[in-house]
Design brief:
By secondary structure, the chain is α/β, with parallel strands linked by helices. The protein has a single domain, classed as Alpha-Beta Barrel (TIM Barrel). It has nine helices and eight strands. Helix 7 links the parallel strand 6 and strand 7. It binds SN-glycerol-3-phosphate (G3P) and calcium ion (CA). Calcium ion binds next to strand 2. One of its GO terms (molecular function) is glycerophosphodiester phosphodiesterase activity. Its EC number is 3.1.4.46. It comes from Planomicrobium stackebrandtii.
């Protein structure tokens, strides 16, 4: 038997699996991304950084300490060193042996299957990271007009301006934290000159903010929903998408009996 959901819940809501379906599998691993795909998310969200030898890897923190069995800064380790680390057992022993994926691996595995929301994490630490990402996408013929399956975002707004110049056909997003609750129309207009998405921490989202972002011509994907209540609150505020650790909290369409 299906579950009855309201009309509002049935409307199309973009479902973004945060660091993959990270409530169910270790964040930013292939297992978490596969889980997001299986759970029918529209996008998987990935955090991209650069190794000492200039390779793009998918990991959230600027050190490997929390999510692997190693220690040290991502930018001080070579790809070979990072690939030896276990990125799964911290989450559960069922995921022992998961590796830190490379950006190219994730793109090659998931392109054509699910959208990819690419976050440039701390790009100020990795000069040239925008070009590397742009080149990887251009080489694969993915930087084409209307490719809405790729979105690039960052808390570093200068990095997004630069990326937009390198990849004018692709959509970009600005991530904002708690300090942006009083964002002005002028600031939103400035963001809209290079970005298509304004993606705030969910705690600052109000009806008024959603209206202002829409009036500035952008969509809004708040982060990070971790409960059904949080997802429903965002639904009721008419956001365009929800970045969540639990894709099952964000329904796409009526569930049939
Ligand atoms: O996609 C938005 C969200 O991922 C930003 O915060 O710290 O989880 O990367 P964080
Ligand atoms: Ca992220």
């Amino acid at each position: 038997a299906g579950k009855v959901i309201s009309k509002q819940e049935q409307q199309k809501m973009v479902n973004i699996a945060h660091r993959g379906a990270s409530g169910h599998a270790p964040e930013n691993t292939m297992e978490a991304f596969h889980k997001g795909f299986e759970m029918k998310s529209d996008y998987i969200e990935i955090d991209v950084q650069m190794t000492k030898d200039g390779e793009l890897v998918v990991i959230h923190d600027t050190t490997v300490d929390r999510t692997t069995d190693g220690t040290g800064k991502v930018g001080d380790l070579t790809l070979e060193e990072i690939r030896q680390l276990d990125a799964g057992s911290w989450f559960s022993e069922n995921f022992t042996g998961e590796r830190v994926p490379t950006f190219e691996e994730v793109v090659d595995e998931f392109r054509g299957k699910v959208g990819i929301l690419i976050e440039l994490k701390a790009p100020e630490l990795y000069p040239g990271v925008e070009e590397k990402i742009a080149n990887a996408l251009i080489e694969r013929n993915m930087a084409t007009p209307n490719n809405n399956k790729i979105i690039i975002q960052s808390f570093n707004h200068e990095s997004m301006k630069k990326s937009k110049e390198l990849l004018p056909n692709l959509s970009h997003g600005v991530l904002t934290g708690g300090g942006w609750a009083d964002v002005t129309e002028e600031q939103l207009a400035q963001f809209a000159s290079y970005a298509d998405y304004f993606n705030p921490t969910m705690s600052i989202v109000t009806d008024e903010l959603v209206t202002d972002v829409h009036e500035a011509g952008m969509d809004i994907f708040p982060y990070t929903s971790r409960s059904q209540e949080q997802a429903l609150r965002l639904f009721n505020l008419n956001v365009d998408g929800i970045i969540t650790d639990y894709p099952e909290h964000v329904y796409h369409h009526p569930v049939k009996n």
